[in-house]
Amino acid sequence: MNQALLPLVVALASALAGTVAHAQVIPRTGGANGVIGAIGDGGVRAVVPRLPGLADGTSNTIQIREALPNSLVTRANVSGDISQTAGQNTIGPASQFISIGGARGLTGSTGNIATQGTLTGSLTQSRSGSGSGSGLGSGAQNVNIGAVVGAVTARTVDANGAVLTSITQSSSGSFREVGAQTLDVGSVRGGGSGSITTSGLISGPGVTQTSRNETSQTLAVASVDGGAVQNAQTSGLVSGQITQSAGVGSGASASQRIAVAQILGAQAQSVSTTGTVTGTLTQTQSVALNGGATQAVEVASVINTDAAGFITTNGTVTGAVTQNATMGEQRLLVAAVVGGAPTLVNAQATLTGTVNQNSSSAFGQTVQRIAIGSVGGATGQVSTDATVGAALTQSLGGSTSGREQVISIASAEGSQGNVATRAVVNGSINQSSNQSSGQQATSQRINIGSAQNTGTMAVRTDVTVSGNLSQSANAQSSGQQSILIGGVAAN
Fold first, then answer.
1. ∠ CA 44-199-169 to the nearest 5 degrees?
2. How far apart are alpha carbons 413 and 338 in whole angstroms?
């Protein structure tokens, strides 16, 4: 080297080292000698020369970022009233759709998705019709407020929705419907993402969904349904009154679902849920003959989320919950974890609103289930903490082919790691089954701060119960009644 150039080379090397001393480290996916590595973050690439680390331990890495190929950002605020009406002469059900800052039917991939929708004016969808025969259809009533729906893949998804007014969906036609009434507020359904964050609020008068036919009714607030995600965080609050009412014809099946800050059927490595309900929740269904119905209220719960290594749930319900049906399944889950085989679970729940599940039918199976801060199927460590300060009532009538009533509070079932439970129950618990005829078995179970079918002897329970507990059944065939309080059982 020309000795005259040596001082200049040294000066340039020193300046370069100072420039890159605190550059951000990006993991490489390949490339010889670290020259070029493609980064799997939605289109970011980096030029990464291999340089020695600095004395202070900071990685000495140069990176050059390209802009993400696509981003989707929405923002909508509506203060005026919105109404959709389909009249009496409609042949078959009419579809109705309203989106406020939402994204629907997305496919493909993009960089980041951020949605925001706010409604302060009233919203009404109503339809009635007299169609028959070919009028049997799949019409739906759908409202999307700051929600993301579709099979889209994104680096990040941030969904935000707020309802500060009343929303009404009603269907009173004489035709047999197989459509759905759906309201998504700051929720995500389908697709995949590196990170999902949801925020949803329903305040003010609340939401009413009514139908005289076999319509599925769904209200999802800050919830995640399906898809694959690296991590997810949900936060939802419902302070308004929620009412779902439907009639179901002969042999039909339908569902009513209220989900607040819930994660359902997804694939995720780490999830955290925070859900609060201070308003009243009411679900009513009537079913003729051998139809089946499902009523579900799920708050800050994680259900069948595969590969979930770490789960944290925090749910609070202070409003009354009422479920009335002639048959089928009724369930209330608050900060509960069901399935998914997580390795670490921390579930916290508080319930101070009364809960009533009532069902009567002459046909079919009937199941009533309440889970408050309970965990089932974990492969690792489980910690539960639940407080119940109101009455829980499950009542079965009629004559059915199978009956089951289960109330689980801060309990762990099927866990393979260390288990620690804590429960405080001040409200009364009552399970009753009164059938008019037949010889049908009834199973009634109450588990409070207990551990069942665990694969470990490392169990610690701490339970206080001051409320009265009652189980009654008049089935003419054998059944089962069990109450497990702060205990450990193999079955």
1. 120
2. 10
Please answer whether residues 434 and 476 qualify as being in contact, where contact means their C-beta atoms are separated by less than 8 angstroms.
Answer: no
Q: Pairing mode, if any, of strands 45-47 and 36-38?
A: antiparallel
Domain boundaries, the chain: 1-67, 71-489
Q: Which two tokens stand for residue 237?
A: 């609050």
Residues pairing with 59 in the sheet = none
Q: Which strands, in side-by-side order, build the sheet including 82-90?
A: 82-90, 123-129, 166-171, 206-211, 241-248, 281-287, 321-325, 355-361, 392-398, 429-435, 469-473
Task: Decide if 302 contacts 340 (C-beta within 8 A).
Answer: yes
Closest CA to 352 of 327, 386, 395, 314: 386
Which pLDDT tens digit goes with each residue over 281-332? 999 987 654 556 789 999 999 998 876 689 999 999 999 999 998 778 899 9
Are 285 and 243 within 8 A, CB to CB?
no
Closest CA to 329 of 372, 265, 283, 263: 283
Counts for the chain of helices (H) and strands (E), in that order: 1, 45
289 sits in the region (left: phi over 0; alpha: psi -120 to 50; else beta) called: left
Are 448 and 488 in contact, with CB atoms under 8 Å apart? no
Question: Which pLDDT tens digit goes with each residue over 233-263?
Answer: 999 999 989 999 987 654 456 789 999 999 9
Instruction: Give per-residue pLDDT as tens, 7-46.
Output: 443 343 444 334 333 333 333 333 333 322 232 333 333 3
Contact 171, 181 (CB under 8 A): yes
